[in-house]
Amino acid sequence: MQVDLRILRYDPERDAAPHWETYAVEAGPMDRVLNLLHTVKNTMDGTLTFRRSCAHGICGSDAMLINGRNRLACKIRVEQLGRRISIAPIGGMPVVKDLVVDMEGFFAKYRTVMPFLVNDAPVPERERRQSVADRERFDDTTRCILCAACTTSCPSFWARPTYLGPAAIVQAHRFIFDSRDTAAEDRLEILADDDGVWRCRTTFNCVTACPREINVTGAILEVTRAIVARHS
Amino acid sequence: MRIDTDAVVVGAGGAALWAALELAREGVATAVLTKLYPTRSHTGAAQGGVCAALGNLEEDHWEWHMFDTVKGGDYLTDQDAAEVLSQEAIERVIELEHMGLPFNRTPEGKIDQRRFGGHTRNFGEGPVKRACYAADRTGHMILQTLYQQCIKAGVTFYDEYHVVDVVFEGGDASEGGRVAGVVAYRIADGEIHTFRAKAVLMATGGYGRAWRITSNAYTLAGDGMSLVYRRGVPLEDMEFYQFHPTGIYGIGILLSEAARGEGGTLLNNDGERFMERYAPRLMELAPRDMVSRAIYLEIRDGRGIGGKDYVYLDVRHLGRKVIEEKLPDITDFARIYLGVEPLKEPVPIQPTAHYAMGGIPTDLATRVIRDPSNTVIPGLFAAGEVACVSVHGANRLGTNSLVDLLVFGRRAGIAMAEYARGAAMPDLPPDADEAVRAEIEALRARRDGERPEVIRAELNLLMDANVGVFRDETLLSGAVTKIAALRDRYASVAVQDRGTTFNTDLLEARELGYVLDCAEATAASALARKESRGAHSREDYPERDDANWLAHTLAYRREGEQPELRYKPVTITRFEPKPRTY
């Protein structure tokens, strides 16, 4: 079938402002949006610019705003979208070119939440023991691929670009609730900030956006409860 | 712009990150350059597990792991390397746990382990639980954990810097030169940056994008192999390329061997578990080369599903709990990419181009060597899939790719630190970037020419058809001729994007040049090797021939001609070559 693919194009070397271009692309129902983008780039316009790598939803390169929702282009099929598909860059980020946004700010925030295990006790000769239940406690947030679909779908982030955002909080959650980690207090302190968890308005956009089906809002609320418990 | 540093790491997958971590611990000034963001690296796509003889669930020994690695590699494996691999696997997995990797756990809280293809107890008696895992996203967790530790250690990253050349002092690698740095293209704005360094590690991964049906990321174009191949470094054992048995039909996305490790079966059109006829002891857990051949033979004999070119992977009998707790991601892949519900239906699969056993030849310290007598190229290192130590020989066992990058990534960092401490800063000629700058500008400026995509598509079809699971003289000589013709056409490709901002059109055209180099070395090495061993199956030479071919290939690039091939002996320590049955 023929799909009308509308793409928000912007090349800072040529365009004063972003503008929509439409491409008529032949596609099958099981094709993914990434296939369509490749069809355009390879056969119609080589200047079309987007990031992609693994093409099966694990590297996190190709988050885009597709028919009004943040998704990975490699994980969404034409049959789920219909014959009219519109694609824009993920929101609230400086656009570099076409569907490519500047990710530096996103990763800078990620780095501020101490996204690494802290435990200065001498290590045992073998593995540390961890119960199945303790391991399960933070399983959901270990799935995060840092694609930024959650953060860039969040109205609180759009309104306040300094907000750390859902992805950074998810990454903090992964360690706060890991029984082997000893720096939960430090992370809770960081997230108790004006630009931390208080900015979450539980609109659940992040949950809808997450291609890994992480309960992002749930994770933020768990962190919030831990902060509250700490102060009471 | 020019940047001076002691060490440069090219790539940011598992091997690169562990090397960077080791360099940081040693206090060596290091720059990590990646054309992606580190967390996008393809280590993250590894699924099933990482083998180490921890013996957490049943008796196991590193000697068994070593034996399996050697036998799995059809005795082309260098046994001193396999010994290092299987011994140090244990230390590295424990260290990863200490770094925070969230392994699945046993009821006692130890790292859980499961079965994987070709991994056996007591030198081949039967399957053993050796693969440590984090659901079916073990690679994702390894990549995340190592990146986290690099952040903690303050490693300097240059994200989205595409390395386009390796610079030598005193002549190219083949002329006895020593490494002096790399040239990189900053993707954001097209600026060329030259990094002067004493030690350079190539850790850029494989080149699965030479084939159409592949499990590999779009970005895996053999960059690192090609860049040093052009500078006189040979490529080792390129004819040994692994086709993973269970790629999603028509697309090639991987469904982990863990599905079979947990008890999944392979079925033909008659509903028969055909592996009974090919590997009666290990069945579906035979090594990948054997399973992929079995699938092809079933299809050729008309027992593909509905007579087509695929068979079924069946996990229905494992039950919802095992599938959802231990194989959640690959279950999702089947749903998303095939619209198949693995809880209720068998999943259509076909072999998919997956992993390069060959690559840049190195010694046990990851130092790159340039000839059959193992002459070291000063300052140049390689680790991970891009390298050939050779631990995988003619066929890699499942999970050993992750073991390889952990063990040899760490060894690279240590060896580079030692080298950097003892070496003086090389002299970098002021025009070090001139050659590659000219290449890039010529490509950017060319007005009329073929689109790179046309050549890429032809190469992919050619490699699928002629350099696949089964090969023969006709197919391979056809491949050699046609790849040479594609290379000629490549010399005059034209891009449409002539800008400097995030020009992926330009960089993908360069990547096509890399992948053509790798394809050339692969086809030429395969044509010359007149035997069948591991993943290299010649229908015209169906037997392994130890008298003539128990040797590693070294392919040297020759401008305008076919590569020159030399051979290097295999290191055999504990296990004499024997017939390989499972």
Describe this structure in words.
The complex is a heterodimer of chains A (232) and B (582). Chain A has 232 residues and is α+β, with helices and mostly antiparallel strands. Chain A folds into 2 domains: 100 residues, Ubiquitin-like (UB roll), CATH 3.10.20.30; 127 residues, Fumarate Reductase Iron-sulfur Protein, Chain B, domain 2 (Orthogonal Bundle), CATH 1.10.1060. Chain A has 8 helices and 7 strands, in the order ββαβββββααααααα. In chain A, strand 6 and strand 7 form a beta hairpin. Chain A starts with a strand and ends with a helix. The mean pLDDT of chain B is 97. The radius of gyration of chain B is 22 Å and the shape is globular. Among the domains of chain B are: 114 residues, Succinate dehydrogenase/fumarate reductase flavoprotein, catalytic domain (Flavocytochrome C3, Chain A, domain 1); 104 residues, Methane Monooxygenase Hydroxylase, Chain G, domain 1 (Up-down Bundle), CATH 1.20.58.100. Chain B is of the alpha/beta class and 582 residues long. Chain B has a 6-stranded mixed sheet, with helices on one face. Chain B has a 4-stranded mixed sheet with strand order 1-10-9-8, covered by helices on one side. In chain B, a hairpin with a 6-residue loop joins strand 18 and strand 19. The interface between A and B is large, with 56 and 60 residues.
